[in-house]
Amino acid sequence: MKALSPLILFLLLYLATSIIAQDFYKVPIAVAFLISAIYALFTIKGSMAKRIEIFAGGAGSPTMVLMLSIFILAGAFAASAKTMGAVDATVSLALKYLPEQALLPGIFLASCFISLSIGTSCGTIAALTPLAAGIAQQSGISLPLMVGLVVGGTYFGDNLSFISDTTIAATQTQGCSMRDKFRVNIRIVAPVALLMLVLYFLLGKDAHVPSEIAAANPWLILPYLTIVILAICGMNVLIVLAIGIILTGIIGISAGTYDFFGWLSAMNEGMMGMSELIIVTILAGGMLEVIRHNGGIQLIIKAITRNIHSARGGEFSIAALTCLVNICTANNTVAIITAGPIAKDIATRFHIDSRRSASILDTASCFTQGLLPYGAQVLIAAGLSGLNPIAIIPHLYYPMLIGVALVLAICFRHRTKA
Q1: φ and ψ at residue 375, rounded to 5 degrees
Q2: How far apart are CA 73 and CA 334, in angstroms?
Q3: CA 9 to chain centre
Q4: How far, in Å, CA of 43 to CA of 57, rounded?
Q5: DSSP string computed for 211-241
Q6: Regions in the chain scoring below 50 on pLDDT
Q7: Cα separation values, 13 from 30, 36, 41, 59, 62, Å
Q8: CB-count exposure of residue 183 (10 Å: 0-12, 13-18, 19+)
Q9: 359 neighbors 176 (Cβ within 8 angstroms)
Q10: What's the CA gap between 180 and 230, in Å, rounded?
Q11: Quick check: 297 and 339 in contact, CB under 8 A?
């Protein structure tokens, strides 16, 4: 039990105190990890230099450094693209060319595309929720339905985007490429997305598009399209992000949305915005390495897989572990970072393809996060729309259905093609 005590301490510090405070954002998750990481050092026998060496080995592993590098570039790209007006342009173009009967599926598609492009559900929700609320008011569509549509659609991109922190964490902890994970993952969620388009078309056939739509420069969405296409083609994600950042500079400065120094400022803002995630990743990586050194990972694997004797059971155990950690942390990226190394060991033991384990990690975390009334995404949407978070939950059809799709994908699992 001593080997797992750092993880138990973290759960007590973060989960228990958050429940007592009735606010999952009252306790900074980085501070909870910091205290737990410091405590973890004292669970190792030997000199302090040796203890720090073990911790640093996990915090500064090649996989961890690569993940952090991607986080930094992803933050720079997302912020520079948003600052130059790419998000607003995408929304305006979607509304401009949508027929009235396709308003709901069109907004859902816009939510999917923006989140796929910028790699963040929170950013997409912040951009689209005020617009969705305004459209609901003008068209007579149910406000909770419209907000739930936006929030649900963002998990399509959060689950699949090449610059999403969940995708980065899932692929890096499982040791597979983003392109290969995308190919496996899209088979699980694409049928759900198509089903949602049909459902929203039926629900919104009597809706009306607002008469006044802001003009948009179509060139502003080029960086988004470029990174999606290049990433799908298999180009290294660091190079893809670098190209995307350069494009935002060229297009943004040419269009006059910012000057050279404004571009640099936007990149800096984006990188700084990733600071908490970077800190949490470093601390979690070091703490989990200490737990592994003390034999804690093997204890967890043994407990989870005690009655598991097949690859299918191993996949269910990975999904269950991810959901449990996500419920405790209310953060799907942190859940993947925490559960990822354990999932990798389970996948190795039961000969589960790394692409499938990465897809299961990401999809299970998005399913869980999407239905948490105390999750950041639902809270942001509730705050911007004036709704109670509980009122939004019943309308989060997409997160619900990707959970069902994941269960079916595991039940009827097939050999992943190379």
Answers
A1: -75, 150
A2: 19
A3: 25
A4: 16
A5: S------GGGGHHHHHHHHHHHTT--HHHHH
A6: 418
A7: 11, 8, 17, 21, 29
A8: middle
A9: no
A10: 14
A11: no
pTM: 0.71
Alpha carbon distance 316, 319 (integer Å): 5
Place of tokens 């420069």: 217
8 A C-beta contact, residue 220 and residue 233: no
DSSP state of 42: T
Residue 385 · residue 142 · CB < 8 Å: no
CB-count burial class (<10 Å; 0-12, 13-18, 19+) for 20: exposed
If you ran DSSP here, which 8-state letter would residue 16 be given?
A: I
Position 418 scores a pLDDT of 47
Sequence letter at residue 15 = L
What is the distance between the terminal CA atoms of the chain, rounded to a whole angstrom?
40
Instruction: Give the integer Cα–Cα distance in Å for 320 and 314.
Output: 10
Distance of alpha carbon 197 from alpha carbon 191, whole angstroms:
10
Q: Which of 395, 365, 377 is nearest to 24 (CA)?
A: 377
Residue tagged 């496996």 (tokens): 184
For residue 159, give the nearest of 14, 364, 404 by alpha carbon. 364
Q: Which residue blocks in 84-236 are alpha helix, DSSP H?
A: 86-96, 103-118, 121-139, 143-160, 165-174, 178-203, 222-232
pLDDT in tens, 172-184: 899 998 889 999 9
pLDDT digit string (tens) for 348-385? 989 999 999 999 999 999 999 899 877 778 877 887 78
